[in-house]
Amino acid sequence: MSWGFLRDVLSGVNKYSTGIGRIWVAVVFIFRLLVYMAAAENIWKYEHDEFECNIEQPGCENVCFDHFFPVSHIRFWALQLIVVSAPSLLVVFHVAYRENREKHHNQKLYRNPGERDGGLLCTYLISLILKTGFEIVFLVLFYKLYNGFKVPRLVKCDIRPCPNTVDCYISKPTEKMIFLYFLVATSCLCIVLNLSELSYLICKYSLKRYLKRHKKHQGSKS
């Protein structure tokens, strides 16, 4: 697949984001997408070929690999990047809907189609909630699939057709663990940024409503 499409999507979202949202885009693009493309993808590229067991029993090595690596790391992270970035499209589509609506009516309906107010604010908040939820789901799913955030040097397998318990070795475990921790840490950072932006927008909207109500109340008194 072409990662340029995802880059273009993130660049489009950047125009309608808050300061915190722009930091999120930078983290996803630099610390996740580029690191994934430049390093992490190559580290796990030949994980099946480099997985070795101390037995020549046909099928044993494949079965053990499938047991300990039910989903390829690189495919899992690729899917995570796509799914986590997808809710941002809701904001882009909503802005495009506003712009098309103005063209259809041939008049100015919004002060700024990209301004976060009314329905667009709701769409933006929903996208933040979805992104946070997806990040948490993928972290939990990864933890369940691989029994934690670690890459062991040696795993023991006794699944048929293996005749007995065999030792299987994972290549470059230290290097893989370093990048695993890095990608998990950036995922946690994205969760913190999403929650921070969500809190900021809710507080900003609540304060705006309060000041507007207070000003209206003062005007009615006078």
In summary, what is this structure?
One gap junction consists of a cluster of closely packed pairs of transmembrane channels, the connexons, through which materials of low MW diffuse from one cell to a neighboring cell. It is found in: Cell junction, Gap junction; Cell membrane. The protein has a single domain (9-216), classed as Gap junction channel protein cysteine-rich domain (de novo design (two linked rop proteins), Up-down Bundle).
What do you see in this structure?
This protein has 222 residues and is mainly alpha-helical. It has a single domain (9-216), classed as de novo design (two linked rop proteins) (Up-down Bundle), CATH 1.20.1440.80. It contains seven helices and three strands; from the N terminus they run ααβααααββα. Strands 1-3-2 form a three-stranded antiparallel β-sheet, with helices on one face. α6 packs antiparallel against α7. The protein is elongated, with a radius of gyration of 24 Å. The mean pLDDT is 82. One gap junction consists of a cluster of closely packed pairs of transmembrane channels, the connexons, through which materials of low MW diffuse from one cell to a neighboring cell. The chain crosses the membrane at residues 21-39, 76-97, 118-143, 178-203. This is Gap junction protein. It is a multi-pass membrane protein. Residues 134-201 form the Connexin cysteine-rich domain.
